[in-house]
Amino acid sequence: MRRQTDREGRSRWASFGARRGRCRRWLASGSAVALAIPVVAQPLPPPTAISDAAAMASSASAADGTARGHGTISIEYQNTFVDGMFLPVPGGKAPIGTIRTQAMSFGIDYFFADHWSGHVDLPFVYSRYRGDAPHCITTAPPQCQGAVVPIQAHPESAFLDDGHYHGTWQDWHVGLAYHDNVDDYFWSPSITATLPSHHYTFFAQSAPGQDLWKIELALELAHQLELSNLYYRIRAGHVFAEETLGQSIDHNRLDLELGYFLSDAWTIKAFADAKKGHGYTGTYDRTTEAWYHHDQRAPHNYASIGAGGDLHMNERDTVSLTVQHLVWGEFVFDFKYSVDLRLSHDF
């Protein structure tokens, strides 16, 4: 069949700063990528969407008055709980069981020029499925006795839905972004590549990801309102994804954020994000290759909302905490909540 992020992409904007003067000097308000950490096989929304507050290097914080040569390193922990799946069945939701996913992501954003930055990150995903609908590649596991399985053998596909945690490295996210400030509107077009770190198992309720390459073209806009500590961010992107058995899953993404600078140290925010695109929505013969690849071929559309805050401990270090909840979905896991904690350091 998630996360996204996506886990498809999450935008890593700089904190604007609590004062307008500081905000105006932050030329590089956007990061190089929209990071997503798909905590399960299907691309559920990135848990913090564009709401994470990693403080990017900028002319305001660079001692030499330039963003070039500066950046941010970050470590992020995410805990997501899934209960059921949105499907076209009576009630709109299938009780497939529960999935608990924990993920750690390690990333770096670096300005190699005043207007240009690059981003790289890689998450480690650790998931457990509990329920009566495991994905069975053979009937050998006790949980798969009597199950209908694909005719074609796939010895490379491990059985992960045994009720225990399984972990692995997921997808590289590599991005490039351009940043500019036009009359206090911060613009950041970007291109981001999602590249599987290796050929991991994708046929599982608790799979770490989709094992597909993706390319996202996006544009992000941020602005702090005049004579106010209120700001907003808007990010729109289109994702070109690897086809599976001829099925396109290209899609569009929209991320919105509204925040308020309580002080130099504290920022609060609310956000929403959505994904809508192509994918196969028909029925499956579970003995076929189409069923084996169904998680890679489904649309996984969703809408989610969330809230959070940032604590800027000093000029270089920031702690961010957000909570996100799915409010609508099609062919996607119903995640009840996703909690995301990030520590970031400017250099």
Task: Describe the fold and architecture.
The chain is mainly beta and 347 residues long. The protein has a single domain (20-346), classed as Porin (Beta Barrel), CATH 2.40.160. The chain is built from three helices and 14 strands. Strands 1-2-3-5-7-8-9-10-11-12-13-14 form a twelve-stranded antiparallel barrel. Strand 10 (251-261) and strand 11 (266-277) form a beta hairpin. The protein is elongated.
Q: What is the secondary structure topology, with strand pairs?
A:
Layout: H1 20-25, E1 71-86, E2 93-113, E3 116-130, E4 166-169, E5 171-178, E6 180-182, E7 185-196, E8 214-224, E9 230-241, E10 251-261, E11 266-277, H2 289-292, H3 294-297, E12 301-312, E13 317-330, E14 332-346
Antiparallel strand pairs: 1-2, 1-14, 2-3, 3-4, 3-5, 5-7, 6-7, 7-8, 8-9, 9-10, 10-11, 11-12, 12-13, 13-14
Main β-sheet, in a few words? 12 strands, antiparallel, barrel
Lateral arrangement of strands in the main beta sheet: 1-2-3-5-7-8-9-10-11-12-13-14
| Poorly predicted regions | 1-40, 44-62
Q: N- to C-terminal separation?
A: 39 Å
Q: How many DSSP E strands?
A: 14
* Name of the CATH architecture: Beta Barrel
Report the mean per-residue pLDDT as an integer: 86
Query: Assembly state here?
Result: single chain
The DSSP helix count reads 3
The helix/strand class is mainly beta
Task: Count the domains.
Answer: 1
Share in helix: under 10%
Q: What gyration radius follows from the Cα positions, in whole Å? A: 20 Å
Q: How does the overall form come out from the CA principal axes? A: elongated
Query: CATH homologous superfamily - what is it?
Result: monomeric porin ompg
SS strand fraction = over 45%
The string of secondary-structure elements, in order, is HEEEEEEEEEEEHHEEE
